From TrEMBL:
Membrane is among the record's keywords: yes
Species, as recorded: Solibacillus faecavium
The keyword Transmembrane helix appears for this protein: yes
TM annotation in the entry: 57-78
Keyword annotations of the record: Membrane, Transmembrane, Transmembrane helix
Descriptive protein name: Uncharacterized protein
Region (Disordered): 95-120
Composition bias type Polar residues, residue spans: 110-120
Length: 405
């Protein structure tokens, strides 16, 4: 049968073309004919009953097939609206099933490590602050670390550890950054936080004044590609950038390390210099968590260039934090950078999470140059803890995670 549908007119014309069948015999003639031929004299056939009870599959399959055909025909007559409704119902059921699976996995992760309390910052965060300021460090120790993201790039995160926990594990409330790292990085469940397992770093780390020495084993794997090298360098900066000036890389014999993609590491990796002056973009992990992170470690000679570069979309991985349709002017005045919005900016007209990311991204960028920001042309004088009538406090770190060791 052809694919085109037969309407009532087609069927009627087809039936009219069929030959007419007539029979002029009476009912008595037909009955007598059947009686003479012995149609009523034979014994009715005996049906043998089965000895075992079971499912009569043939009738059942016929019934199912019939029901399927009826539903299919009904769907054709009901039209696309009913089909869409059925598809939506299926999608809803699938979504509910997926959500149940996610909840189950989340429960498994929680039971796996009940001692850890984690807070990732997703797209629907309602104006929640993610930066850490000097005024928040009373009674706690700041633990910074660069975790391996989904795209082979280090993501800087921060954890505040109560001083009593630090004293309990280290015997002092003023450990060096390296002592802090050696003690707590092995205890960090990176996968549960949504990152790849990366720490503690392979080899041996030791301090020499304001410099770190990293002695690598032969099979360290940090130079297998440009991406692994970028992640390694970025992780060193994100973890130790606030505490040391540079990192010297050695091989297992104590000689200058050789990396396949860059050659001999004759020069140390700077942790505080123009090579670590970044601007910050939005980076979203595959699990939906959002962080503020440098855009592939792009550096800038001055804060004006860094902020102006933030007004354009960078790439598919790092997205600008500047609100859509918003333009601004930057003026560097020594320790304070003035950011003036070209038109009066009403923060209540935007999603609070997007507003927070813009403000914090700009603050982190200025902090990378050791500067504060004063905002101009914002309708609100106060918003979510920020006082825009004066320069905002310079953050010491970003992307806070809550984790109980």
């Amino acid at each position: 049968m052809k694919k085109e549908r037969w309407d009532e007119e087609n069927l009627e014309q087809l039936l009219k073309q069929a030959p007419k069948v007539t029979d002029h015999r009476t009912k008595d003639e037909i009955f007598n004919r059947l009686k003479d031929e012995g149609a009523f004299s034979e014994e009715p056939p005996q049906i043998q009953q089965p000895t075992q009870k079971g499912i009569r599959w043939a009738p059942l399959l016929v019934s199912i097939a019939s029901l399927f055909i009826i539903v299919l025909i009904g769907a054709q007559f009901l039209g696309n609206d009913q089909s869409i409704s059925m598809e939506n119902t299926f999608d809803m059921a699938t979504t509910e099933s997926e959500e149940s699976a996610k909840m189950s996995r989340a429960g498994d992760a929680t039971s796996k490590s009940e001692s850890a309390t984690i807070s990732n910052f997703s797209m629907d965060t309602q104006g929640q602050q993610t930066l850490i300021y000097e005024s928040q460090l009373e009674g706690v120790t700041l633990f910074k670390i660069g975790l391996a993201g989904d795209d082979a790039e280090s993501v800087p995160v921060s954890i505040l550890i109560p001083n009593e926990v630090v004293v309990d594990k280290l015997g002092t409330d003023k450990p060096t950054a390296l002592e802090l790292y050696k003690t707590f990085s092995p205890l960090l469940d990176e996968q549960m936080l949504g990152f790849n397992e990366y720490h503690p770093l392979k080899g041996e780390l030791r301090e020499e004044g304001n410099k770190l020495i990293h002695t690598l084993p032969e099979d360290h794997g940090y130079d297998t590609s440009s991406a692994t090298l970028s992640n390694y360098f970025g992780s060193l900066v994100d973890t130790f950038g606030n505490s040391y000036e540079e990192v010297q890389i050695e091989d297992a014999n104590g000689k200058i390390a050789y990396f396949d993609h860059v050659g001999e590491m004759g020069q140390s990796i700077p942790l505080k210099s123009e090579q670590t002056q970044y601007n910050y973009f939005m980076y979203q992990m595959r699990d939906g968590a959002v962080y503020l992170s440098p855009n592939f470690r792009m550096t800038f000679p001055n804060v004006t260039d860094a902020i102006n570069n933030m007004t354009t979309e960078a790439n598919d991985i790092y997205r600008t934090v500047i609100l859509p349709g918003v333009s601004l002017t930057v003026e560097d005045k020594g320790d304070i950078v003035t950011v003036t919005f070209d038109q009066a900016l009403d923060l209540e007209q935007y999603d609070p999470a997007q507003v927070m990311r813009m403000i914090e991204g700009l603050l982190l960028t200025a902090s990378s140059f050791d500067k504060q920001i004063k905002f101009e042309q914002i309708v609100q004088e106060n918003w979510s803890g920020f006082d825009f009538t004066k320069p905002l406090e310079k953050p010491v770190s970003g992307n806070i995670l809550f984790y109980n060791f």
